[in-house]
Design a protein that fits this description.
Aminopeptidase; eight-stranded mixed sheet
Length: about 300
Amino acid sequence: MISMPGKSWSQPVPSLSAEEQLIHDNLRRHVEMLAEQIGERNVWHADALVAAASYIRNSLEDLGYQVHIQAFESEGQTVQNIEVELPGATAPQEIAIVGAHYDSVPDGPGANDNASGIAALLEIARLLAGKTHARTLRLVAFVNEEQPFSGSEQMGSRVYAERSRQRNEQIKAMVSLETIGFYTNQAASQHYPFPFSYFYPDTGNFIGFVGNLSSWRLVRQAVGTFRASTAFPSEGVAAPGRIRGVGWSDHASFWQVGYPAIMITDTAFFRYQHYHKETDTPEKLDYQSLARVTRGLVDVAAGLAGN
C-alpha cells in the first residue's frame, strides 16, 4: 500500500529553470482565465461552462491538435468532454489517458479545484505536442465532476469510461489531475484519513499519487517516474477505494469499468482550507511548485505512454 520506488525529494527545491518559468507563467494565465475571468462554471452557469470549454478547445487547437468533442445532455444543457490524441507508434491499440475536470463547484470559482489540473493538462499538451510514444496518449478535459454529478451517470468521466468499455478500448493507464496547486511548509498542515497519519509527513509540501488496490502497479510506476526526474517531494499510496477521499475524482469512473486509474493531487481538503469555497481564488496557488510538479507530470505522461 505505501512502499514506493525511489525516495521523496527532501532537499531544498531548486530555483525554476527557464523552461519551468515559462510553465509557471502559462499556468498562472490559464488559472486566472478559468477561475477569475470566466469564474464559476457548471450547468447552472452554462455560459461560463461553455466559455471554459471553448477556452480549452481553442488552446489545444492553437497547439496544433485536432480536438474531439464528446457531447451529452445534462440538466437540460449540452455539455462536453474535450479530447486530443497522440497516436501510438508501435502499440497504438494500447492507450494511456491523462485527464482533468474543468467544471467548478456551485458558488465557487474553482482555482485549485480544478483550474490547476486543467492548466497542467494544457501545459502537458504543449510540451508533448508532436511527440511520438509507443502507446496512444489521450489528454481529456472532463465535465461534471463536481456534485451533484460525482458518481452519477451524468459525470463526464463516467460517460467517457463507459464508452471506452463499450468499444473494448485497451486503456492501460488513466491519470486524473485533481486539485494540484497548493503547497505549504507549515508544520501540521497536512491531514489524512485514519491510519495514514502514522506513515506520511504532517507538512503539506508534497504531491500525492493515489490509487486503489487494483491500481497499485500504476501508482508505483507513476511515483517512480516522477521521483527519477523531478526535484520535488512526492508520496504515493494504493489503498481501498472506500477510504475517504481515495476515489473522489474522475479516476474512479475508470475503476468502475475495470481500468487501472490513479489520482494525482495536493490532497485537497486534507490540506487546503479553501476547498469548495468561494475563496478558492487564483492568488491562493503556489505557481512555482505547480510548475515544478507539472514538468514532472510531463515525464509521467510520457512514461505511461511507453516512452
